[in-house]
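Morning!

This is the sequence you dropped in the shared folder:
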Amino acid sequence: MSKSLICITTCNRLDEVKKYIWDYIQFCNSNSKFDFLLSLDGQNPEYIEFCNQFEIPLIYSEANEGVGLSKNRVLKQFPNYDYYFFIEDDVELIDSIVFQNHINASELKNYPHLTLTFPRNIISSEQGNEFNFTLAQFGSAHVNFFKGEALKKVGGWNDTFAKYKRFGHTEHSYRFVHNNLQPAAFIVLQDELKHMFIHNPPHVTNHSIETNNNQLISEEQELIDKQIKTYPLTTLEAFHFNGNTLNYNKKVADFLSTNKRRYPLTRGKERRKSLAEHYFMKMLIKKSLFTKIRYFILSIVNNPINVPFKHWVKQKLHLA
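The structure's back. Tokens below.
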């Protein structure tokens, strides 16, 4: 039986973790082929206490080094999974079918790396049975899928970017192209975008660094241009694993059995803001006009000027 690891990567955004982590753990609790792990970049006592309280498996480092090295730590500690899903902490799971669909699509086309993103610089599109593939030069790293065997070939995320605590995901994705493992660095299952919501809270790192037209810093662009095929799986500072099981989490199962509402640990204004975003993004993917109106009203009632609503208005004004 193949095994998959679903890993949430996070840093200094425990409030986001407390909103969205439950659906991932609940899914893994009901699917023995999937394990769950939280990977924290840095050493935050509040995260450690939260994970101890709910017996959540946590890997954490002694220093902040960015999400790339956060993934490297996971691969060093847990190297033998068939598939890996690395998901950032602001991504809300809507339909768990997204996981098996990525595995099936990967096996269908033999593409070892898929990214759930809004693609930029689209190259082409492909149809493969029930899946629509969009191939692009660039995209984000909010949700990344990998075959474990391919990760061992391309290696880990480059530790050059530890000093920035960001960047590096594009160079890593391009190694799959440089190894002739797939035709594009960013391959998106377009129809799966509705199964996860990206909320985009404030960034953890706000350093002003000049980027090119591809939103890359010069060091990353230079590494891509060199067509590097592999890089050692590197970690810098020491890291730790709390030892909690990655399999069935009874503590969380018991908690959710008596706390069935969405965002069970989030209260007041923050919960209303999250619900407003959730309902508005649901409104965007629904086809029925009645359902769209219902979710729009629920969104406005909870928070009339929520972030996705503002982005939607800006987009419409731009298109006009």
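Headline: The chain has a mean pLDDT of 93.

More detail when I'm at my desk.
O.
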